[in-house]
Design a protein that fits this description.
alpha+beta; 3 helices; 16% helix
């Protein structure tokens, strides 16, 4: 396993945190076991826009995004094991997970930050990749020249922390000929202030 750091201590990448054979089995099982959704939401023109990927929400708390509200499924034994591994490496306790299935290179997620109030001031987010490799881009919110691109492969674990979500945007762009990929992001969701 190789450890890489990016942007100081804001990003930690653990290459092949899961060995290739374990990562391949995890991908196959997650693909089959997950209750995948492709929800739609009202767009600005009055129509419906569907997420350009499949998604699922698991855990004890809902993580709502893209104008969508999710009811989380309970942890499966497999997701609970993966959560424990992510908690061990990140030093955080997680209560929510979002799974994304990028079916091919046309599926993507656009520029965004995971900075909703429910994740707290400086959230720790652990991201596991299974299946095909994809580019993960980071861009500073003010200085657009401050950009970074990281190739994430099967079994890689990426941990984001500190003020990263307040200072940077990230995305997984479209990528021709990309193989299917599952990404799991674990996070801690807090109760809103009273």
């Amino acid at each position: 396993m190789i450890r890489e750091r990016l942007l100081g201590d804001r990003v930690l990448i653990l290459r092949q945190y899961f060995a290739p054979d374990i990562a391949a089995r995890a991908y196959a099982a997650l693909h089959a076991e997950t209750r995948w959704l492709q929800p739609g939401y009202a767009n600005d023109t009055g129509g419906t826009t569907h997420l350009p990927r499949l998604t699922a929400n698991y855990g004890e708390r809902s993580y709502d995004y893209s104008r969508l509200v999710f009811t989380p499924e309970p942890w499966t034994p497999r997701l609970a094991e993966l959560k424990t591994a992510a908690e061990h490496e990140s030093g955080e306790t997680f209560n929510a997970a979002i799974l994304q299935l990028y079916r091919d290179g046309k599926d993507s997620v656009n520029w965004h930050s995971d900075d909703i109030p429910g994740v707290g001031t400086n959230p720790v987010i652990a991201s596991l990749s299974f299946g095909g490799s994809r580019w993960f881009h980071l861009r500073h919110k003010v200085n657009a020249e401050d950009r970074h691109a990281v190739r994430l492969g099967a079994g890689d674990l990426l941990v984001m922390r500190g003020d990263l979500q307040h200072q940077y945007l990230h995305k997984v762009p479209r990528e021709p000929d990309a193989a299917p990929r599952i990404n799991i992001t674990f996070r801690r969701i807090f109760d809103p202030p009273a």
